[in-house]
Specification:
It is a single chain. The chain has 985 residues and is an alpha/beta fold. Strands 16, 17, 18, 19, 20, 23, 24, 25 and 32 form a nine-stranded mixed sheet that branches. A seven-stranded parallel sheet has the order 3-2-1-6-7-8-9, sandwiched between helices.
Length: 985
């Protein structure tokens, strides 16, 4: 920035640093250093050790104030964030003492006569600055509302006010200085992009190596985890010969082998990183920016539940600087293939690394009065944009978007990434020309049934060998998953292809686990799986899989499962998974479901593989299938995750169908669906009912599958009248049946069933004890009580019996401990009662009883004569279902807003004049976000109104919803394709 301007006075900056790790503090050092060089005072509010700042800045203009005003993400270990503990710690640190914090900070800011407050990225600092009448600016690549949004949905919904408060605090910030690799941050409407903020080097590579006594021919890896994974022992054999590993942040008690060297705690790590051949660690802004700046390859291991990571990872990989290591290979020491791959890379980041200087100049100019912020937005508009977070950031945790104009491009990104309907489809045009079938393949068995998505999947398969042939790493942004998929198959052998759709829950929803009738429609969007059974000695193994087998000392080839999953970047998960199939065996028997669940839970970035690999274990356990050959699978799903349209069921059904086809197993669709439910319940650990898998397996295009979930009795297929149409509209708020709210409502329903059975038993006993005869109590009444005393499913209880005898016996809520003391167990095999939790009981019990009645009425209405009353009644049943979900606690702001928009269309003047086309809407599936189902007339006006709702929702939230429209056949109807590449002769 240069020397102090002789005309303008020195400034006073108050610089707040988040309590999450040292990475934020180290980049603050670089900005603060330039501010001090320009002659200004910088007061840093931090919880980081003094040496982080004083080792780089020796100046009387630096003032350190040791105060912690947030906690960041609480880490259970070096690789795992504890989501609930993070929310609780933030509440304890910043929410409970908020009034005291505000008063203290306002007083302190005034006492130092601060000219500008800078935050990286402490929320309350922005609000304190506003209350003190001081302008504020944030400097960051992510914000805590973005990080915490997923935590709230997954671990602590009762903490959701934290996200709103953080967003509101950030809305008082004047603008954002945005660092490269940034996340979406809707709370900041005005942003200025700057180059990487990177600490300067003090020593050359040769000087560092000379000081450490390391020869030039020695390969150096720097292990930079900010603390090592607990219980981890480093071993000499982890490194290839000729390598030395420098360990940052090692505890004093950690014993290291001779080829590992501890670095002192105050070591200036940028110098050591620049002197190394590669870095091994977890992704954070500091590690990624310094690896890019000094062109050092970075071998990284994914961190659990930290949504900053995918955006930095994209940047790292774009500049050819990253190699992903599987966590189990890190912990078991299979490092060689990753280190060798890393040193073959040529990182190519050539952009600026003077972001500290640029940011300091902007801060100085702002403090002197320059206005960088837009004047076109009012305060209320800024706040509304901050609250967009509730919709945007709960959409898909970890969604990898790295485009500057996030709002404007959201719909394009979604359209490209999810295979969702195009505008033409939204207008009801189903007459699309079928893409030409790829000539490279010959279909030996099966029929594509005119499905364009199947043709496109086969085209993507046909292009994989060209990816393999041309793999030179010249395309920076070529997806790693396509490179991995290119080596999966032996193209001279048969490949089997299967397809399974998602489902739109028209009626029934969460009542499935209580035995309700449900009506489900298979979606147009589907999952495809390509599978090949391969002799182990012919399978091309990935290098890390080869290293793992060598380390086990296995004699000869062993069967291996290798999976590539397309679309991994949409949800921050690894694109590949592999395992020895022998891992599913223990003492010559298939592994228990409990141990399998733990196996897949070890690494959350690969937990997705439980949905796919779990099908193999279920077939082993339930049908006694033996797998002697290796299996290669490619999974490509256009059913978007987290939208409440059964993406997991589509993957499970398509996968099990593929395994069955490749291994000659004849499993009927109903049985296959039940087996897939076991995958989700017992291997994944999600307490879902069976309707999702049944629809995906047994459904047919343009028909509703009618099924009584006791446990899975298909009544038949209900034709959708040609004049009626169903749509699904995505709210943008992520849904998960594994979430806390779905599980607690399910537990509440099973608790209610147990109480009803107990009450019925008591009434029956009283009748017998009092000597009641058939003259006093009709025999049918006694039979009813006997039936209710042994009630298998809540939905077998009629609404009038519930109202007459049981509703007053059910408390609104009940503590888990109280229930267990009185009733011992709720008799649900897939959920566990938390003794310390208070469960909503009456609403959770009432919902399935009345929902079963509503579904029966809906089914009857579909087959009645056409009339406005028919549409009105169908719509009313959907509305009633929606509000019953909300009474259970399974609603959401986004789905409520969509239903409200449908109601506004329904009750508009145009509708009342006889031109109405939309009649009802409801939340679907497991609730708590996801998609709403809409019913209306099958006409152009309806499609136009759906588009209007899309636009109005985007206008209110900034998010353009995906619309699900149309239908397609289930996996049973599709069967399978057996294909083989034609010879190139």
């Amino acid at each position: 920035m240069g020397a102090q301007d002789p005309v303008k006075r020195p400034l006073v900056f108050a610089y707040y640093v988040t309590g999450h790790g040292f990475g934020h503090a180290t980049r603050v050092v670089e900005v603060a250093r330039h501010l001090i060089l320009a002659g200004h005072d910088v007061h840093v509010v931090t919880g980081a050790p003094d040496y982080v700042f004083t080792s780089e800045i020796q100046s009387p203009r630096l003032f350190l104030r040791k105060v912690l005003l947030d906690c960041g993400a609480v880490q259970a270990d070096a690789l795992t964030v504890d989501r609930l503990a993070s929310l609780e710690k933030y509440s304890e640190t910043a929410v409970v003492p908020r009034d005291t914090i505000m008063a203290t900070e306002v007083e302190w800011l005034k006492s130092i006569n601060a000219d500008l407050v800078v935050s990286d990225v402490v929320p309350v600092a922005c609000r304190a600055a506003a209350d003190a009448g001081i302008r504020s600016v944030c400097v960051t690549n992510f914000s805590w509302d973005f990080i915490y949004a997923e935590y709230v949905m997954a671990a602590g919904h009762h903490h959701r006010s934290i996200v709103w408060q953080i967003a509101e605090d950030y809305s008082h910030c004047e603008f954002l200085i945005r660092l490269p690799g940034y996340c979406p941050m809707p709370a900041f409407r005005d942003a200025i992009d700057v180059p990487l903020v990177v600490r300067r080097l003090h020593k050359s590579r040769d000087e560092v190596r000379r000081d450490l006594g390391i020869s030039e021919d020695m390969k150096i890896a720097i292990l930079n985890f900010g603390g090592q994974p607990s219980g981890w022992t480093l071993k000499e054999e982890y490194l290839p010969e000729g390598w030395l590993c420098l360990v940052c942040g090692a505890s004093e008690s950690l014993n290291l082998p001779p080829n590992f060297v501890k670095l002192a705690k105050d070591t200036y790590t940028p110098d050591v990183i620049a002197a190394s051949d590669c870095m091994l660690g977890k992704i954070g802004y500091g590690t990624v920016s310094e690896a890019l700046a000094y062109k050092i390859p970075f071998v990284f291991v994914r961190r659990d539940y930290f949504n900053e990571e995918p955006f930095l990872r994209n940047m790292l990989e774009f500049y050819q600087g990253g190699v992903e290591m599987i966590r189990r290979d890190l912990l078991t020491g299979h490092w060689r293939p990753y280190l060798e791959r890393a040193i073959s890379l040529k990182p190519c980041y050539e952009s600026g690394i003077n972001g500290g200087e640029v940011a300091a100049r902007i801060l100085q100019d702002t403090a002197y009065g320059k206005n960088y912020a837009s004047d076109r937005l009012s305060g209320s508009r800024r706040l509304r944009d901050a609250i967009v977070l509730g919709y945007e950031l709960q959409r898909v945790p970890g969604r990898d978007l790295s485009i500057p104009d996030w709002y404007a491009n959201a719909e394009n990104e979604l359209g490209l990434r999810t295979g969702s309907p195009t505008t033409a489809i939204l207008r009801g045009d189903d007459n699309f020309p079928l893409p030409s079938f790829p000539e490279e393949f010959e279909i030996l068995d099966g029929d594509i049934l005119g499905l364009s998505d199947t043709v496109n999947f086969l085209k993507s398969l046909s292009g994989l060998d060209s990816v393999l042939d041309s793999e030179k790493g010249t395309e920076k942004n070529q997806l790693r998953e396509r490179k991995a998929a290119a080596g999966l198959f032996n193209w001279e052998e048969d490949i089997f292809v299967t397809r399974a759709p998602g489902r739109l829950d028209v009626m029934g929803g969460i009542a499935d686990y209580s035995g309700s009738l449900v009506l489900q429609m298979p979606t147009r969007e589907a999952c495809h799986v390509a599978i090949q059974k391969i002799c182990p000695n012919k399978q091309r193994l990935w290098k890390h899989a080869q290293a793992r087998q060598s380390a086990k000392g296995q004699q000869g080839p062993t069967p291996v499962l290798q999976i590539v999953s397309y679309g991994s970047e949409l949800s921050n998960r690894g694109p590949t998974f592999d395992m020895d199939l022998s891992d599913f065996m223990e003492d010559d028997k298939p592994l228990s479901y409990e141990k399998a669940r733990s196996y897949f839970a070890r690494d959350p970035s690969q937990r997705w593989a439980a949905y796919i690999a779990g099908t193999i274990l279920v077939l082993m356990k339930e049908l006694g299938v033996h797998f002697d050959n290796s299996i290669s699978m490619l999974v490509s799903s256009a059913v978007p995750e987290g939208k409440g349209v059964s993406s997991s069921a589509a993957v499970e059904v398509a996968t099990m169908s593929a395994i069955a086809a490749a291994h000659g197993l004849n499993i009927n669709p109903r049985d296959l669906a039940l087996l897939c439910q076991k995958v989700e319940n017992h291997v994944v650990g999600a307490p879902c009912g069976v309707m999702d898998q049944m629809t995906s397996a047994c459904g047919e295009a343009n028909k509703l599958l009618a099924m009584v979930c006791q446990p899975a009795e298909v009544l038949g297929l209900v034709d959708i009248p040609s004049y009626i149409r169903f749509w699904g509209i995505d709210s943008g708020i992520r849904h998960s049946v594994g979430g806390a709210d779905y599980g607690s409502v399910r537990i509440g329903a099973f608790m209610g069933r147990k109480i009803i059975k107990s009450v019925a038993s008591d009434l029956l006993s009283q009748s017998c004890a009092n000597g009641v005869t058939s003259d006093d109590l009709e025999e049918d009444g006694i039979e009813l009580l006997e039936t209710e005393a042994s009630l298998d499913y809540l939905c077998n209880l009629s609404p009038h019996r519930y109202e007459a005898l049981y509703i007053k016996q059910l408390p609104e809520t009940m503590l888990g401990e109280t229930f267990l003391e009185k009733y011992s167990d709720h008799n649900d095999p897939v959920t566990v009662i938390d003794s310390k939790r208070n469960y909503g009981l009456r609403a959770a019990t009432r919902h399935p009883i009345y929902e079963n009645f509503r579904v029966k009425a809906f089914k009857a209405l579909l087959t009645s004569s056409t009339s406005d009353d028919q549409f009105t009644a169908l719509g009313e049943l959907l509305y009633q279902c929606h509000y019953s979900y909300s009474a259970c606690g399974l609603g959401s702001d986004g789905t409520d807003r969509l239903v409200q928009l449908v109601q506004e269309m329904h009750h508009s003047k145009l509708s009342r004049s006889g031109e109405g086309t939309l009649y009802g809407a409801k939340i679907t599936g497991g609730g708590s976000g996801g998609t709403v189902c809409v019913v209306g007339r099958n006409c152009l006006r309806s499609s136009e109104q759906i588009i209007q709702i899309q636009k109005r929702y985007k206008g209110a939230t900034g998010y353009l919803p995906i619309v699900f429209e149309g239908s397609s056949p289930g996996a049973g109807k599709f069967g399978h394709l057996r294909i083989r590449r034609r010879s190139k002769d």
